[in-house]
């Protein structure tokens, strides 16, 4: 395992070759990991406890990509088997897996503060000093 440069020892990258057999997917996983951890580091939301969530997010991206390739080639609906009068067209299991991976990825992105809609809720809020009005100078607190 290697730590992403610039994150110190905050998030240690998993050994993707233990989880994935395709060298192209291993490389893609590394790129996703690096992109996510750098963005989280810059937003100051990266912590050691988020490592496994990031790993699940990367795997959701890869499963989505795998399934999307099959759906693009074969379509979202499986044709009925020839010769069987009771056979009907069904939704492809790859399409279902693709939708589930997309849903999982969206939930994890929101949890990690990566989706644009959720960023404000996760990052530190920059509090600005309130301007005092002229009338506030005349108001004094009354002690009892």
UniProtKB/TrEMBL annotation:
Protein name stated in the entry: P27 family predicted phage terminase small subunit
Against InterPro entries, the record matches this protein to: Phage_term_ssu_P27
Q: Which organism is it from?
A: Sphingobium jiangsuense
